[in-house]
Amino acid sequence: MEPINLAPLLKAVLQLSKGQIAEEETANIGFSIRRAKEILKTLDQIRLAKKVGDKYELTDHGNILCSWIRDEKWFLIEEYLNESYQPYSRLKDVVKKWYEIGHEEGIPENELRTFEKKLVEEGQFKETLLKNAVRINFLRDWGERLGGVMENKLSNPIRLYLLSQQKHSQNEYTLLKTPYLRLAGRGLGEKYHLPIPWFREHACEFLRITRDSFDLMITTLLSERPTCIRLFRAPETTIAVKGPGIRRIVYRNEDIVEAELSPLYGLKVNNDIYYYVHLEVNML
Question: pLDDT tens digits for 235-257?
Fold first, then answer.
């Protein structure tokens, strides 16, 4: 079973919540007959839908997942897919094992297949499931949109990482000191202030936190210890970094809407947008 893009899969669940759908009734799903068959078959295999006669309908699991979609509980959907779809759980297991052998940074995207093969040779997995780049890209798409597998969009190559099981509060902004010094030590913070997008992507990877958590740490630091941090406004075009977009999905009016956010976004504070930061690390 090859992966299906996440948005069409969830759209089909919403359509099935309105009643049974036959494979030929593709107008109800909005795809070609071939594509609709693939989607319905995938839903059947992950126990979200079942075939009754010549039509498909949602299972109990499908109805529950449909309510999660409407409530935008993406983390619960991610947990279900991780349990029910082995190639996706394999992607997460490979990233996890990368950390278990001592790596501090995430696994480079071009190392995924090679590292999985090594794990198979060592007997940790029975077979390879990350068979080709197309499948991996589909699975990465699932992980990124649902928050199960994060990516540093501004590393070269892109590195994948999992969120830490250890929860960090917004008051633990002293944790930002290490990734800041790592970047500053490469010359980014000595002559120039650190670009916030660059700092955000690398700090999130190092601490294995979400981008929202990073932004909360910065704004909390600004509020509680303003002498330790300076923010600077600048046009976004002056930031000399580029990267692919951050993919998101949202539920809107009984539909799944796909959105892409530039990794170059700055930090909004009191209606002002800042693009550079300087930390007084000796005062943290």
Answer: 554 554 556 788 888 999 888 98
Residue 24 C-alpha from the chain's centroid: 34
Flag whether 166 is in a domain: no
Q: Which residues pair with 257 in a beta bridge?
A: 250
Q: Please count the structural domains in the chain.
A: 3
| CA–CA gap between residue 188 and residue 103 (Å, rounded) | 23
Q: How many Cβ atoms are within 10 Å of 79's Cβ, its own excluded?
A: 14
pLDDT tens digits, residue range 202-229? 999 999 999 999 999 999 999 999 999 9
Residues 65 and 15 in one domain: yes
Query: Within 13 Å of residue 65, how many CA atoms lie on the same side as its CB?
Result: 24
Lookup: tokens for 274: 């800042």
Question: 76 lies in a domain?
Answer: no
Burial of 13 (C-beta count, 10 Å sphere; 0-12/13-18/19+): buried
216: Cβ contacts below 8 Å, ≥ 6 apart: 170
pTM score above 0.85: yes
DSSP the chain: -----HHHHHHHHHHHTTS-EETT-GGGTTS-HHHHHHHHHHHHHTTSEEEETTEEEE-HHHHHHHHHHHTT-HHHHHHHHHHH-HHHHHHHHHHHHHHHTT-SSPEEGGGHHHHHHHHHHTTSSSS----SHHHHHHHHHHHHHHTSSEEETTSSS-EEEPPPSS---TT-GGGGHHHHHHHIIIIITTSSPEEHHHHHHHHHHHHT--HHHHHHHHHHHHHH-GGGEEEE---GGG-----PPEEEEEEETTEEEEEEE-TT--EEETTEEE-EEEE-GGG-
